[in-house]
Amino acid sequence: VHRRGHGLEKGAVPAAVPGIAFLSGGQSSELASARLNAMQACFNNSQTRLPWALSFSFGRALQNEALRKWAGAEANRGAAQRALLKRARCNGAAALGEYHAEMETA
Q1: Which of 38, 51, 29, 33 is nearest to 1 (CA)?
Q2: Is the pLDDT score of 6 beyond 70?
Q3: Which run of H or E residues covers position 91?
Q4: Percent helix, strand and coil across the chain, each rounded to 5?
Q5: How many CB atoms lie under 10 A from the CB of residue 31?
Q6: What's the pLDDT score for residue 34?
Q7: How far is CA 42 from CA 19, 64, 83, in A?
Q8: Of the candidates 89, 92, 96, the residue with the CA atom closest to the CA atom of residue 106
Q9: Which of residues 53 and 87 earns the better pLDDT score?
Q10: Which residues contact 56 (CB under 8 A, 6 or more apart)?
Q11: What is the pLDDT of residue 27?
Q12: Whole-number Å distance between alpha carbons of 95 and 37
């Protein structure tokens, strides 16, 4: 995914564009984080630095677990908030190329 996408954008997107966000739909939350992390590791190093930030539009991948835990019940609010915070931390780390699968069980 990340190697294919790079060739398309680099020739088509001006360096003045601040960032590119891929859609995370159809992926699990964990897979979206892992793929974003892989893109960061591949393209944001000293040899292949991109002129723009890479990210995912994490709508469902960020919210899915929190919504599932909440299920509309006030009693589940704390669990839902913890799930959302966990995903935000995982995705934040992935955006920096610092995500590890072990973060999912922490």
Answers
A1: 38
A2: no
A3: helix 77-95
A4: 60, 10, 30
A5: 13
A6: 92
A7: 16, 27, 28
A8: 89
A9: 87
A10: 21, 22, 23, 24, 32, 35, 36, 91
A11: 84
A12: 6
Cα 37 to its chain centre, rounded Å, is 7
Inter-axis angle of helices 77-95 and 29-43, nearest 10: 20
pLDDT confidence of residue 14: 83
What are the tokens at 16?
A: 């003045």
Angle separating helix axes 59-70 and 77-95, nearest 10 degrees: 160
The pair of structure tokens assigned to 59 is 């709508």
How far is 61 from 67, CA to CA, in rounded Å?
A: 11
CB atoms within 10 A of CB 77: 12
Q: Which pLDDT belongs to residue 8?
A: 47
